Amino acid sequence: MSDVHSKWVYKRFEGASDGVIDFKLDETTDPAQNVFRIRSMRNVGFDGGWHRLKIGENFEVTLEK
Q: Which residue, among 43, 50, 36, 41, has the nearest Cα to 17 in the 3D structure?
């Protein structure tokens, strides 16, 4: 969620966190896709690209390959 607080508050919160993960619904595809990315993570190498999530019939979430 963004634009609820000032940018200063978000930067302080993110600075105090070990990692920040973004989730979004990509509506530019048909059908729309649930995606996530790791924006930042301390002391660990990571891939910051967007990755698709698959939601199963029982609402189990898995990483789509």
A: 41
Number of structural domains in the chain: 1
Does residue 14 contact residue 40 with C-beta atoms inside 8 Å?
Answer: yes
pLDDT for 13 beyond 90: no
- pLDDT higher than 70, residue 1: no
The answer as to whether 11 is a domain residue is no
The answer to whether the Cα torsion of 14, 23, 47, 6 is positive or negative is negative
Query: What is the C-alpha separation between 3 and 61, in angstroms, rounded?
Result: 27
Distance between CA atoms of residues 25 and 19, nearest Å: 20
